[in-house]
Specification:
By secondary structure, this protein is an all-alpha fold. The protein contains 15 helices and 2 strands. It has helices at residues 3-35, 37-40, 43-69, 76-94, 98-117, 125-137, 139-145, 147-150, 168-191, 194-204, 206-211, 216-242, 252-264, 271-287, 294-330; strands spanning 156-157, 244-245. It has a two-stranded antiparallel sheet. Helix 3 packs across helix 14. The two termini are 20 Å apart. The model is unreliable at 1-16 (pLDDT under 50).
Length: 331
Amino acid sequence: MSERALSSTASSTLNAGLGDKLARLLDAALLLLLLVVPWVAPSFWTYIFALSLANAIGVLSVSVVIRYAGEVSIGQNFFIAVGAYAVAILQARLGVPFPLGAAFGALLGCLMGLAFAWPSRKLSGVYLSVATLALGLCVPELLLHWTDITGGFEGMNVKPDLVAGVPGGIQQFYVALAGFAIVVIALARFRHSRYGIALLTARHHAKAAEAFGMPLASVRLLVFALSAGIAGFGGSILAFASSTVSPNSFTFWSSVYLLVGSVVCLYSTKPSAAFFGGLFITLLPQLLSDYGELVEIIYGFTLFVVIYIFNIALPHLQAAIRRKQARNGHG
């Protein structure tokens, strides 16, 4: 290997190491900032950050499908609604405490993900996206059909009374923070596990993965089960953080917003990136609440800009830089 190649490799390794260190520092700074939010921020912002953390879990569930399966899901609102209503119904009907309800919501979401993925396991691309689209569109109608169970248009309340004597707003925030931390840590461990490596291999080298006993159909089943379980858990956290569930909270646009959040954070499962995606889709409607449909226009424009920059503009810029470096090297 030439001296130039060795120097380039060493530089790339050093830059990657520095990038990882900076990412860890950013994540640590974010954690420290979030820990003190209820004590330094007004109650409104504490509530917004709690919702952002809950929505960040939903963003992570979308990113899992994109990163590990290379597919797009537009039906995550279904699994989020499953987890949210599981908590609300179990608390209201049976008096089940929130931690058990959240665990059941995650399990139920996972089972629903398997139930959806099995008949659609051989679909891919636009066909799978349309299948998830159909799943997302049916959520409000299903919730309104079973009015006796779901409470209909009025929905159901979820009491933030996990710890006696602690204000509800503080409980909502720290439960959302804890839920977000659990998902981030679980995904980090999964990424370096045997199954995580196998899934990434299956996405980029399908034939090699099949040789190791991981066919694409099995990959899709596992990815959708994992994603739906995270979404179900995120729905449970969202129900607790917002104190209420209703059909209006789980429309088709909810899934679109989660997709926007995932694109904005570049499908990353890093804590700071996922939180930014959740904050973006939570805060923007609040800031533009007086402008009605302008919110959807801005979301669409944001999608276009991010996709254009990172899939067209940035690759062209990188190619131009490489050509210039090649010319300078030959010169």
